[in-house]
């Protein structure tokens, strides 16, 4: 039992519980229905504190590179104050490679100073003892991306465990790398005992080819069979994978699953302070809300993309790439039509 925060979100009709130490998160609607959205503001903010990344992967949805810029510390302070006021509980720091931000440790500390639990994902480069110590002191979780050469991720897992940190592995799943995902689950059993979870993220075709999008078929079914056999660590999925999760069959605990949370419980802020429902919209939508001119809460309540996103998630057929089968699908209650923005769903 850690340090629980219980909040009555009266305007939104539900109660939330958040364990700041363990990360457990519960929403409870007294009427027994699923809470749809937090009307007052996001519970989780995804913040790109930089677009700098030394790896320059060709599939990066932000096309991050060595010329990428860094969010100014004063700008981070501006948004973290607004976030606290809006009731944000957690920030997921990303980029780019966030730990390469020159003020990264201060950013972690400032988040905690404002009662917000930070977490982050690294590509494995630029991790220092100071950063591991600050991670242990301030963060709820950290993750490392599983990209070749895997030695980077393996080194992070090893060094983090010396600080008592169990990291998550983030694995971006596309049509071609399903065999590597299965290999990670089946052949790296010792390594997986030292991590918390593998989180599989659905590939999004932003700055890269849509030929890599996951499709239905035997390969993905075999992948889910491997998932079901895993015993030595937890497995998670980003909500962008939701339309594939029915393939888990009875192996899925429905209470632990939620559909796309963008504009319902989470939002994204870019390194130049533009607010969007989700990070993957940064480079496809010109409608980011400038947080130097508008408040986070106003953007959340009234921003055009936010209102549109909630509408897309509230009824079948409203997605950008609508799926006729959603109208009669028995999984709609759980899935809500998959991703409302990208054509990355199993049933497209
Ligand atoms: S809009 Fe699509 S890509 Fe963005 S968080 Fe939702 S499911 Fe994922
Ligand atoms: S048909 Fe629609 S609701 Fe059903 S699983 Fe596919 S995307 Fe989800």
Automatic annotation (TrEMBL):
Upper taxonomic lineage: Bacteria, Bacillati, Bacillota, Clostridia, Eubacteriales
Keyword terms: Iron, Iron-sulfur, Metal-binding, S-adenosyl-L-methionine
TM segment ranges: none
Highest taxon above the source species: Bacteria
Name of the featured protein: Radical SAM additional 4Fe4S-binding SPASM domain-containing protein
InterPro entries in alphabetical order: Aldolase_TIM, Radical_SAM_PqqE_MftC-like, rSAM, rSAM_sf
Pfam families registered for this protein in UniProt: Radical_SAM
Radical SAM core domain span: 39-238
GO molecular function, one term: iron-sulfur cluster binding
